[in-house]
Amino acid sequence: MERIYLDHAATTPTDPRVVEVMLPYFTEVFGNPSGIYQEGRAGKKAIDESREKVARLLGAADFREIIFTGSGSEADNLAISGVAWANRGKGNHIITSSIEHHAVLNTCKHLEKYGFTVTYLPVDKYGMVAPEAVREAITDRTILVSLMHANNEVGTVQPIAEISKIVHEKGVLFHTDAVQTVGSIPLHLKELGVDLLSLSAHKFYGPKGVGALYVKKGTRLSRLIHGGAQERQLRAGTENVAGIVGLAKALELAITELEENNSRLVEFRDYFINELMSRIDRVKLNGHPTKRLPGNVNVSFEFVEGESILLILDLKGIAASSGSACTSGSLDPSHVLLAMGLSHEVAHGSIRLSIGRENTKTQLDYVCGVLEEGVARLREMSPLYQARARKERSV
Ligand SMILES: *Cc1c(COP(=O)(O)O)cnc(C)c1O
After folding, report:
1. What is the residue extent of each domain of the chain?
2. Which of 201, 205, 232, 341 has the greatest count of CB atoms below 10 A from its CB?
């Protein structure tokens, strides 16, 4: 049976055109980029060219503002811990939101053990942070605001440009986790106005295990990994040359083809949401109705367990998730959905289907049918739903 992959927010397949440009860097061009001989210089050149390409595609002022890392998580860690420790003399207060990825949340929690204080801003029912709440939270001890560009579970896109103006009026540094938006929606560093921005290659059809942090010129940062002088002394370790080349190529392809992919994904997303809403009762769309990622569908089905739906989907050849790859396997409901005000019960009945480049409308029609049938079957077995149905029939 053909598998249907609908978990692109967790990871994407590497584009064959990306794999092709990576291959020589495993075999022929293997020299250590720190070497002064020809083999090393070839690796160094590939990294330099990739750095320039990424800087240009994101609209950075200088190629030196791009620091390659081992993942999006590492970029988030470097941004937050890096700013925190480098600015310890100025203050100890960090502002973030309650719906961030765990790479941000757990870094902040860790820093709390070392004397930093963290404000976790609430969100509205759509998962939106209020810009004015950011202004009110800033004190003269605040050194960093870190807010994600788009949420990985519900797809809500935050007004980052508006918030960065407020943060800069107060003279505070601003980091955004843009792992879900780079290569997915139009993004320009000058328009966003942030000081630091995280991205990860495997979310835009590049390889896993490589990411980058944009660090605006003049931003003071402490390193996480000590050792050699790679990445402007911010990240020691022999570079993942193939991965870096792959990241740059994947970003180039994603941005060149963004408009075309985007309009198709938005059309598919809205079609799919409408189909679900009209064919299944007691379904709720989570996240903002319009300010959301092109491929993101996050829905709650009342009276069913999300995990049960996911099992049915998997048996029918469909890969989807309950929201976040990091929390699946644990029985805790999503911290994002709870922060948006969903009850534990409804949060448990939520699933995320994230559509990607290679999905077709025929696939989505099939998935809709499987969901309709699966949800009906699960509700037949739910005493709560049956009692509710009886009650509604009797009135
Ligand atoms: C996937 C993701 C990350 C982590 O990126 P990795 O490269 O998998 O470490 C961080 N933030 C967001 C919003 C993500 O979606």
Report:
1. 4-10+258-394, 16-256
2. 201
Is 108 catalytic? The answer is: no
- Ligand 1 pocket check: which of 74, 80, 99, 101 to mutate, most ligand atoms within 8 Å of Cβ? 101
Summarised one tens digit per residue, pLDDT across range 201-221 is: 999 999 999 999 999 999 999
β-bridge pairing 283-285 and 211-215: unpaired
CB of 182 shorter than 6 A to ligand 1: no
Q: What is the topology classification, in CATH, of domain 16-256?
A: Aspartate Aminotransferase; domain 2 (3.40.640)
Atom number of ligand 1 nearest to Cα 71: 7
Q: Which CATH number fits domain 4-10+258-394: 3.90.1150.10, 1.10.357.20, 3.40.50.300, 3.30.1360.40?
A: 3.90.1150.10
Total residues found in the chain within this entry: 395
Ligand 1 and 252: CB distance under 6 A:
no
CB of 107 closer than 6 angstroms to any ligand 1 atom: no
Distance CA 169, CA 44 (A): 39
The model's pLDDT over 256-269, given as tens digits with 9 standing for 90+, comes to 999 999 999 999 99
Cα 204 to ligand 1 centre (Å): 11
Are the beta carbons of 94 and 111 closer than 8 angstroms? yes
- The model's pTM is 0.96
- Rounded to whole angstroms, the Cα distance separating 262 from 250 reads 16
Tell whether the model's pLDDT for residue 326 goes beyond 50: no
